[in-house]
């Protein structure tokens, strides 16, 4: 079977909002692209639906939330992102519904992005493993909230002007990528940003002791479908 070449991600945008379920979601494979965008002068903000409080087995949720929020802010700073917001949905128990759509729509109206980055909401991940409910529910709510944000009569009590200016929506970690971002010169920043999640990585079973090798291998693998350049893959979602 012939593997199709990945297309270049459209560049006709200036403000991005990344909406993901957990600290570390952007960093697993996509933060190198964020580094490339901010280096090019684009503005990127993060919205985390949870604080990742259920992510470290050896830490109680309240303590874990403090640690993971700090790791996420430090990680984002490495790739040029200083605007990081956390919602209060429960890690591992994110529910699709009006509350989640409302929170995301409010963020879209505040940030007014022309590009929105999410995390794969398909049933499986790019590795073929079953995707988590948190990822699936967040991605589906995000897609719906983009439409909600543009309709002034939906969540009108937010007191925020509607925003219909989202040009592109892309999902990271998709098993069906369509586009790619050249991360030449930015892979090291992406690796460093993931390494910053030390408590989380060391708390996994088994612990992750090195992210350099898998991230480098991933960039090379995607690059094979992108002219041989190290790259990050994304799926553009038609709207």
Automatic annotation (TrEMBL):
Keywords, ordered alphabetically: Zinc
Family annotation (SUPFAM superfamilies): LmbE-like
PANTHER family given in the database record: LMBE FAMILY PROTEIN, N-ACETYLGLUCOSAMINYL-PHOSPHATIDYLINOSITOL DE-N-ACETYLASE-RELATED
Name listed for the protein in its UniProt record: PIG-L deacetylase family protein
Organism whose genome encodes this protein: Streptomyces nogalater
Lineage: Bacteria, Bacillati, Actinomycetota, Actinomycetes, Kitasatosporales
